[in-house]
Write a structure and sequence with these properties.
Distance between the termini of chain B: 31 Å
Strand content of chain B: 5-15%
Number of helices of chain B: 15
CATH topology of the largest domain in chain B: Beta Polymerase, domain 2
Largest interface: A-B, 22 and 23 residues
Largest sheet of chain A: none
Shape of chain A: flat
Radius of gyration of chain B: 33 Å
Shape of chain B: elongated
Structural class of chain B: alpha/beta
Strand order of the largest sheet of chain B: 7-6-5-8-9-10
Structural class of chain A: mainly alpha
Radius of gyration of chain A: 19 Å
Oligomer: heterodimer
């Protein structure tokens, strides 16, 4: 059931991404509307899969990487759908939807994961809360990175006086997405790291957690704190803010996902 | 029934002639035109780029003469000046018939024939021309169908091609670029440097897009005040530019002078005090803005050549799209032609059925007297013969109604009339 729903979700996200790229290439608003509609349908099915997942396992093993990645994809998609109501950002579907497809497809291959060993201290809500908040933070920061990447693309086109596709979002909208996603994402990541620290601090689980994951997570948080300070304290904006968002997300992605996979 | 079209446009006649022939109120003229026996229906399309009459007639030659007379006398063509090369009005007029006339109407509505390919105004102007013709009682069922078909074709062309994509005027290209930078254009403020004609044209384009906050800075403050008063803007002197830059999102400059008005240090200083991007359009010759300004983060500088190049590229793209648009027009014109051909077949089908029925009735009458049929037998024979006639006529009637190519359909109708003697006087046997 969960696998089926995740497979349907992955299909819908892929279709939404393709429709968005067709819309950008042909400058067709109809394709863009289809992309948004398909993405919305995907989010509903994904939400259904998440609910089914929670009904099946108690407590849900969100600490399992596939589950966390799927949750991250859902949050990123929901955040994007909320943003779409406020600004001309449909082209972001072309990047977020394929990324969500990869995440959900990966999750569909691994979930449900009956062999996942129960975590030490899983009776406490802390590990669940840690993964929930940190994944949400990572999802928001992922959207900030995507917006930053697209900003650089449009900025480059405008600076070099090349024809910019009319369906690309405006620079101002992308910069705003970057700012909002960074602020909310950093807050959630901070809460995620804090709950993680509390969890690790409990003596019973100290032995079971990965040292590399702990170090890289705190390092990534510190790097992001610098970026946030530069953005909001140093009034960084435009191209520099976009580069920082892309680089920051790449670093964070490696710190959280890469280390988990390699570790 | 034939569709004919007589007219002139921006390619065949100079503006002096077009403005002389343009009609503000075509209703009375159309009513007069269709009151003559040569013209059954008519629509007059009068815009700044074309004056055309689309008419429906049973007598094309006579209609052609009548329409020429209409252009010369009613529209005042006789008083129009000759073209630069000494061409008379008749040399500027083009006349089109049937398929060509229909296709032309569809092309005009689809903006393929416009001076600026893909512009949207022409469709509204044609709808207005059609409405006026309807109100004047000059537009009947066939031209109504033709214009409905033209409007549907225009919609399809816009939907299925990119003929209307991309701006082709420098001012509109600037607005499009601004939309790539800013999310909510009407909320942005613009600083205009200069008070000349180019600035005025640009200002009009910006106002159309709802830009409300406009500041005009000029060397001569009185000129700035004059323009600002007309467009509800605030006037400033050039010395205020550094301060104004901090509060403006767009700068449009077109002012005389050899030294750049906007330098890199000036713009950099302004950027320190602002958080949003700055879009600078320099249409001055020589240029008013140091080109190195474009290298600053958050500043996008476009000069006249950049904008003209973008406009030309869009125009070329539209021209390429006309190939696809022409294919749609041809398809829709053939569909309309098929409908008209089927309509042409109606009298022939009616005559054919009537002829067959009169023969059948006459033969029944003769046979009934000879055979001494009672009422029931007579009804049986009636039904039998009616069924035979209907079956015999079914195939030819279907073929005549078919959506054949128009020329072929006319030939078929002609053959049917000859074969069945539909134009002969009824013989005694038929009675």
């Amino acid at each position: 059931m969960i696998t089926d729903l995740l497979q349907i979700t992955a299909g819908l996200y892929l279709a939404a991404g393709l429709a968005a790229w067709v819309g950008v290439a042909l400058e067709s608003s109809r394709s863009m509307r289809i992309a948004v509609a398909v993405l919305t349908a995907g989010a509903f099915v994904h939400g259904g899969a998440f609910v089914a997942f929670h009904l099946e396992k108690k407590p849900p093993p969100l600490t399992d990487l596939p589950a966390a990645v799927s949750w991250m994809a859902l949050i990123a998609v929901i955040f994007l759908l909320v943003l779409l109501r406020r600004a001309r950002l449909a082209a972001l579907v072309g990047v977020v939807a394929p990324a969500a497809f990869v995440g959900v497809f990966f999750a569909a291959l691994r979930l449900p994961h009956p062999d996942a060993a129960p975590l030490v201290g899983s009776a406490s809500p802390l590990p669940h809360l840690h993964v929930l908040l940190a994944s949400m933070g990572l999802a928001f920061l992922g959207v900030a990175g995507v917006a930053g990447g697209l900003f650089l693309l449009v900025d480059r086109g405008l600076k070099r006086h090349r024809r910019v596709r009319s369906r690309w979002p405006s620079l101002e909208a992308l910069d705003r997405v970057n700012r909002v996603a960074l602020a909310v994402g950093f807050l959630l990541l901070t809460l995620g790291v804090a709950t993680g620290v509390l969890w690790v601090a409990s003596a019973s689980v100290r032995e079971s957690t990965s040292k590399a994951h702990e170090i890289w997570s705190v390092l990534a948080w510190a790097v992001y704190a610098v970026l946030v300070a530069a953005r909001f304290g140093g009034h960084q904006r435009g191209r520099r803010a976009a580069v920082a968002a892309v680089a920051g997300f790449a670093f964070l992605f490696f710190a959280v996902i890469g280390v988990s996979l390699l570790g | 029934m034939k569709v004919v079209l007589l007219g002139l446009n921006h390619r065949t006649a100079p503006v002096e002639v077009r403005e002389r022939l343009a009609v503000a109120e075509p209703g009375p003229l159309l009513a007069k035109l269709v009151a003559t026996e040569e013209i059954e229906e008519a629509v007059l399309i009068s815009t700044c780029n074309r004056v055309e009459v689309v008419a429906l007639t049973r007598r094309p030659e006579a209609a052609w003469l009548r329409l020429h007379s209409f252009f010369r006398h009613e529209l005042g063509g006789d008083a129009a000046p000759a073209g630069e090369d000494g061409r008379a009005l008749d040399d500027m007029l083009y006349d089109l018939h049937d398929a060509n006339a229909m296709r032309h109407v569809l092309r005009v509505a689809s903006s393929i024939d416009s001076m600026v390919v893909g512009e949207s105004q022409i469709l509204g102007q044609m709808k207005e021309a059609y409405r006026v013709a309807r109100e004047a009682g000059a537009c009947g069922a066939i031209l109504t169908r033709l214009f409905d078909c033209a409007f549907a074709t225009a919609k399809r062309v816009r939907r299925e091609t990119r003929i209307a994509e991309g701006s082709v005027s420098v001012a509109r290209v600037a607005v499009d670029l601004a939309r790539q930078i800013f999310e909510d254009l009407p909320e942005k403020s613009v600083l205009l440097i200069g008070a000349g004609e180019m600035i005025e044209i640009a200002l009009e384009a910006l106002r159309q897009d709802g830009l409300a906050a406009v500041r005009v800075a000029n060397r001569t403050r009185a000129h700035a005040m004059e323009l600002a008063e007309r467009f509800d803007a605030s006037p400033h002197g050039l010395e205020e530019i550094p301060a104004l830059l901090q509060r403006s999102d767009m700068v449009l400059s077109c002012i005389g002078g050899d030294a750049p008005i906007l330098s890199v240090p000036m713009v950099r200083a302004a950027l320190r005090e602002r958080s949003s991007p700055l879009f600078v359009i320099d249409i001055g010759v020589p240029r008013n803005v140091d080109p190195a300004v474009n290298d600053l983060d958050g500043v996008y500088l476009y000069d006249l050549d950049d904008l003209a190049e973008a406009a030309a590229a869009n125009a070329e793209e539209r021209r390429r799209e006309t190939v696809r648009a022409e294919a749609i027009v041809l398809e829709e014109q053939q569909r309309f032609d098929g409908w008209l051909a089927a309509l042409e077949a109606v009298p022939t089908i009616r005559d054919l059925k009537s002829r067959a029925e009169s023969i059948r009735a006459a033969e029944i009458k003769k046979a009934a007297g000879r055979l001494g049929l009672d009422e029931a037998q007579r009804e049986g024979v009636e039904a039998l013969t009616r069924a035979i006639v209907n079956k015999l006529l079914h195939v030819p009637v279907s073929r005549l109604r078919g959506q054949a190519e128009r020329e072929q359909a006319f030939a078929q109708l002609e053959v049917a009339r000859i074969l069945f003697g539909l134009d002969d006087l009824p013989s005694d046997d038929d009675e």
